[in-house]
Amino acid sequence: MNVPAIGAVVEYQYDWLLVALSFLIAVLGSYVALYLALDNSAGEKKSLGPAVALGGCGIWAMHFIGMTAYKTPLRVSYSLLPTLFSLVVVVGITMVGFRIALSGAGKLANLVMGGAVIGTGVVTMHYSGMLAMDIRASFDWHWPTIIASVVIAVVAATVALWLAFNVKTTNQRMQAATVMGVAVCAMHYTGMAAASLVCVTQTPSSNYSIDGGYLPYFVFFLALVALGSSVLDRLLSSQPSRKAL
Questions:
Q1: Residue 3 lies in a domain
Q2: pLDDT truncated to tens, each residue of the chain (245 aa)?
Q3: Which of 20, 94, 156, 220 is deepest in the core (most CB within 10 A)?
Q4: 197: domain range?
């Protein structure tokens, strides 16, 4: 790809290995969230595990890996504080959405309200995450595509909650997680398609930011550790305590 002139639309292409990695972590995060939510009879106090699995790993880690798969001829890095803010937002709002759903024992009205809350969190996370891009280009937004991404986010979040309360077997969870992974990726890449980058300068940014070719793989590894820890903690907490001899 050639370096664009000032005022020109920035060309881009995707690293398909990272796109595949983003889909994989979306499916794994969705699967663990479904697994944790299935055993969520304790109610609100156990909404954090599914929120971290779905919001932090299945959605945010997928988003960040998908962002780094977006390759342009300009240097791209990511401002640290907005990137971390997007993570806190999606985990916090996803947890609120799970609490709303759990408080109604899986009633449809609660699932819809919870899905709307989570979908709003996903949209906030996605676009704040996009604005965290540290690149010498401005965004030209296509609003019909933005609206489509919002609809996808809300519908996907509602479907995720419905699946959490209705799948029972391991095979069903895997199928549901795959569907959810497709939905999360569809929302992300639709949101990416809503923005065209217009070059404003070819000079690299001097703002404090993070970049590097290793970052998506590091995020993927951290997400796997978080998911494994959540499952291990649930397994250990479900074991009956041993009585003293």
A1: no
A2: 767 788 888 888 999 999 999 999 999 999 998 888 776 444 444 678 888 998 999 999 999 999 999 998 888 888 888 888 889 988 998 889 888 887 876 688 888 998 899 888 888 888 988 888 888 888 899 999 999 999 998 988 888 778 877 877 888 888 888 888 888 899 999 999 999 989 887 655 555 567 767 889 999 999 999 999 988 888 887 665 444 33
A3: 94
A4: 13-238
